[in-house]
Amino acid sequence: MSQASRILPILLSGGTGTRLWPLSREAYPKQLLPLASNKTMLQETVTRVLAPTHFDPPLIIAHEEHRFIIAEQLRSIGISNARIILEPQGRNTAPAAAVAMMVALHQDPEALILLMPADHVIRDVEKFRQAVALGAGAATKGQFVLFGMKPIEPATGYGYIKMGDPHADIPSVHAVEAFVEKPDQQTAERYVSSNKYLWNSGIFLLPARELLAEFKRLEPDILTSAQEAFTRARHDMDFLRLDAEAFSRCRSISIDHAIMERTQRSVIIPAEFDWTDVGSWSALWDISPKEASGNVILGDVIAEDVKMSYLRSEGPMIAALGVEDIVVVATKDAVLIASKQRDQDVKGLVERLRAEGRKLATETVRVYRPWGFYESIHDGERFQVKRITVNPGGKLSLQKHFHRAEHWVVVNGTALVTRDQEKILLRENESVFLPLGCVHRLENPGRLCLNLIEVQSGPYLGEDDIVRIEDVYERQ
Known about the structure:
Its EC number is 2.7.7.13. The structure is a single chain. This protein folds into three domains: 274 residues, Spore Coat Polysaccharide Biosynthesis Protein SpsA, Chain A, CATH 3.90.550; 65 residues, no CATH class; 105 residues, Jelly Rolls. The protein is 23% helix and 33% strand. It has eleven helices and 30 strands. A six-stranded antiparallel beta sheet has the order 20-21-22-29-24-27, with no helix packed on it. A five-stranded mixed beta barrel has the order 6-9-7-8-12. A four-stranded mixed beta sheet has the order 14-16-18-19, covered by helices on one side. The longest helix has 15 residues. It is globular, with a radius of gyration of 25 Å.
């Protein structure tokens, strides 16, 4: 490829993956989880666009709440050149694409942007790269390239695209005749048998200059707000934080509806790489290794006379007897039991939990922070017990509480504790008491993770009873 056709990979990491509840939640969505391999889906997606010389360093657009988790996941696989843009709130993919387009044009007016979700599974990476290279030929001619997947079943959970005639200059590229929303079963069967319809993968290769022109023509309000959010963005450590007020004015709409379905530039490539968007537990069952009875079994599970099921425990033991075609997923605070045929409806269950004010609809037991994580072990009247893990070099904010005292007991590692004017070094099996109102900080000066038990006591134990005096992560 020529220098003019360099590609900027844009990874969209704003989804919540509610159909994979209780493992995937808003606070820690599916792209941050190792669902299909020992790497997280985000890590797999980044790795996919690293090797070829025509790819620029990837750009990740993510919710600001996930910024430190994403940065740590990239660091752990040796990636230091990726850039991270923070959305103050999710506004679907069109505003994110508009911001990505501005970044691309700023560095190269001839740039192509490869817009793709960070939560898909693609097994054959080389075929994926070959499809992108083929698409670049059309994109450099001003076409908006979609990658369509040949249906292997009449799935009702995907959008479909009807292929038109082959492109005059590139026979492997077809015109787009129609976009179709998720069909019913009978319609999906008709689409599959016709061989004219492809699944919409949600992956696009777009020439930035022409995309700007189409935003001006079709969605000028989104473009104006996105431009303002980008122009007024501020650097926050290694992140670029979009302006919240301007970005909130962007209409929440997908790039499909805003641009791709309305432009005359759309073309589609029938891609041959193995792909799934892992949009349900049954989709994950499809791609996972199975034992003799067709079961996927992960974690502490005992199964007797169980067939064609997905059983996964990251909490209590699962014991299953005499069932088939079911999904059972257990975490520390919730258990999902569903028919594989109904797993698309898990999203509705989550909405019901959210409406009832259940925190487990969106939050996880383990709460991640830039320095590590904590999780509640037990709580009672006027007390709470937590496990705290601080990464090497991690440092909590200098803070105080108005309503609680704390007692820290080091389980392993080394802790450097600030308590008012004191500096205290603690090792395994040593402890310190932090009285109500004292100014304190916890640091890990060692090379291994620090694990400690925190016992809180007082009339109010909420996380909002924190007055931050100083914070190296610049949190409010």
